[in-house]
Write a structure and sequence with these properties.
It is a single chain. By secondary structure, the chain is an alpha/beta fold. The protein has ten helices and 15 strands. β4 and β5 form a beta hairpin. α1 packs across α2, α4 packs across α5 and α6 runs parallel beside α8. The radius of gyration is 21 Å and the shape is elongated. The two termini are 21 Å apart.
Amino acid sequence: MTGLHVPGLTLSELTELIASLSEPSYRARQIFAGVHQRRLRSFAEMTELPTDLRTKLSDQAAVSKLALESKYVSSDGTRRYLFKTHDNFPVETVFIPEVRRDTICFSSQSGCPLQCTFCLTAQLGLLRNLTSGEIVEQIIAALNDAYGVGSRTPRGTNLVGMGAGEPFLNFDALMKAIWIMAESEGLHIVPNRVTVSTAGVVPRIRELATIAERPHLAISLAAPTDDLRNELMPINRKWPLDELLSACKDFEKSLRPTEKLTFEYVMLSSVNDTDEQARQLANLLNHHQLRAKVNLIPHNAAEPLPYHASGPERVQAFREILESKGVDAFVRRPRGLDILAACGQLAARHTCTIQPAA
């Protein structure tokens, strides 16, 4: 499938397309609302448009370019979607229902180039960057599956860029998608409801700090020393901890006075979870005088990864040491473990709990 992908067009770009077809500009607003607000999946469903315009649009553009290959539903209500792009690359998205809000975890790349040793996605390598339209369409598809096409969502929607890929290695497409989703005439999911996680692409951390309407930032650490982080997260060889945390200190200037930097720490049994490593982590953050909170994430095991999760008592002891040194720490509860939807498990795999794609 070729041609323009409408979910990845801004309202101004859509207006230019409509003008090139010698149509009035209000048609662009109708199409934008149809795709993003009503979450329609084809031009044929936009019956307010003249038939000849729908035909012309279909010749040049597509509303949907992701094909749902399979859907998996966890015992905790989490849903994992495995899509295929028009050129047959896998894209995974996770929908996490909660009492007060829903969270959608989206992917920014098909596969991932970073080779973090504790992450199953690394087994795929980088297949390709996703377009802004493919990022936006993940959100539309997940909301439609959960609530029906065009139905109002009963709760707020938060987005996390923590699926497959390193978002900051696809920065321009990521930010364009975030701004498209923020439009009041569309999905209206504002950047303040979006969190993007990076393994530590320092130049993009600094760039994000200069953007007024931006998402929240989370940084994956996984180790308190360069030697261990070099082993677990090879990106550290390019941007070691001192350089990464210096960039975080600069980014801190863009935070609200009560806001803290978020760090994620995957806990690997007998690898990075000792009392001494907890003290090293606290000292590292305090040395850089960072207003920080740390999310402790027990490793989500999956074959063939060689790691195991730290036990609850070890996680709690690690947390208490961080807190004793003035670092706020929280334990993240995994969701979707039984369908390979939890953090670090996305690798386009099939499971026995498959539901046929509708």
